[in-house]
Structure formats: C-alpha cells, structure tokens
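Subject: Replication-associated protein ORF2/G2P domain-containing protein

B.,
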Amino acid sequence: MKVIPAKQPRIPNNAPVEVKVMGNVIDVRYLARDMSPAIQKLDADNYIELSTGEVKEFEHADARIDDPASIRQSFRRLRDLINYNITTPDNCLFLTLTYRKNMQSETQLYEDFRRFNQRLQYYCRQNGLPHYEYIVVMEPQRRGAYHAHLLLLFNSRAPFIKNEEIAKLWGHGFTKTSALKDSTNLGLYLTAYFTDLDIMEAFKNRISYHPDQVKQVQVEDDTGHKQSKAIIKGGRLGMYPAGFRLYRKSKGLKYPPVIQCTEAEAMQLVGEAPMVYTRTIDLLDDKGNFVNSICYRSYNRRGKFLPAAGEVVQDGE
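Prediction pasted inline below.
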C-alpha cells in the first residue's frame, strides 16, 4: 500500500465520520470509501487474504522505521491517550530515567521500570502522597542505551517530590523531575518531544537525514531562558528496533471513545473551535490504483496551533 499527500476533499454533511473528543482537542476522520478488512490475521507470522482465501506470510521489518504505518498508529494512540487523560497539566509530574551504563535490553528496561514503579508507589503511601496513574515511554539512544520518560497523573495538584528521592528509588543513573508545562495540544507536543532528534546528536553519531526534516524550534532551559535549536523531525524513529513496545500505561487510564456520526453532527460537536491541522492522504495499491482517501482534521477549543499560532497546515497543496 502506498500513501501519498492529497488535497482536502469536500465532505458532504451526511457523510459518516469518526470523532474523538479529548479535552480541548477534537479530532475528526473521514474516509471516502468504507474500508472492510482485506485480511485476517492468523498468528504473528501468517494471515489469510479474504478475497482469495490464500494464506500468506507477513513481511517483518528489521526496524520500526521500516514500518511507517505501525509507527504512525503507535504514536497516534499515544497522543490520544495523553490528550484524553491529561486535561490539567498541574496534576502531573514528568520524570526522565536514564542508565549510567549502556543497558540495551528491552526486557531489562521494563523489569527495571516495574520495580521502580513498585518502590515509588510504596514511597507515596508511606509519605501520605496521593495515588497516581502513569504513562511510560521508552526512548532509544544512538549509543544503544534507553531512556524512560514517565508521566505521573494525580487526581489533584501533583505533589512535590525531590529529584534526589526519585534518583534513589530508580538507582540506575541520572533522573530529572519536572512539572508538566501547559500546552494547547499536549499529546502532540510530547510525541514530538519523544521522536525529534537534536541535530548535534545526529552529527556526533553520523545519522543521515533529509534537509526537509530540519526545523528550528524554541526551547526553554531549566531557568526559563528561551533559545533557538535545530532538530530533525522524527529523527529518533529509526533507532527503534522492530517489534519494540513504545509505551505502556497503568490500568486506570483509558483511550478516548470513538464517536460514529455524520459530518454535520461532528461540526455541531466542534462548534466554534477553529481547525488547527488538516491532512489528507490517498491510498494506492501496489499497481498504483486508487484505494481510498482519508482526511484527518484537528480542532482546538483554545484556538492555538503549536508550530505557529493561527496557522492551518494542509498537506498536498
């Protein structure tokens, strides 16, 4: 299946669409054609093609970057999870957990996090701190070691926990504890933070990239001082090994429900919220024949867009 950018279609008022409402963010998805499943998965290695009944083998990628559809889906689900569950950033803490050694085992990574989470829960109970839910995102480094980024979600304003205490509970290397900054689209902001790569890190490690991937962004240091920095959009994605589980969540967190409705009903839900992002893609089969067109739109009740306030981005124009 080939994906190419396309112009946004005119969507009839009675057309069926899918809507997800996540705090200030409202996402709408429209498919030009109803897509029934073309295959049925049999196991991790095989599937059946429903149109012919033929059993075939999946082509497994060597790295996550070789399977862009899987990457997009994983980070889209992570973005939705963040936006749906975090509506008050003051109720969250953002932790970064690193290794002093070059630890490259995914199994060990999640086992170390599991034990750390148990110790942190015990610490909170012993010190009268409230219960939390979590989202943990694993980030690979070029040298091979992993980082873990942890979002702690409390039911009220997040308590103060000294970073020294977090470092003791982690016990494997450097840690950083900070408040979660407010954002008009927190899920989009954080998933970009997890996937973008500092251009200097790319130079040091001889990572190739396309010039179109380079963007200038404004960042703040720990003192609040802003400065411009060049980053490579999505530059970290190629470091994820195939089959790597990008993130995990606690049981108390939920994904946003998908509302099936018409375009007219979706616009009633949107109300006066401006559209801040739109992207339309055409799907083509291996012979170049049109399969479907998918239009994504995002609206924000706070009326701001992260890269440039007031800008509407549309692919394919």
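The first helix runs from residue 68 to 85.

T.
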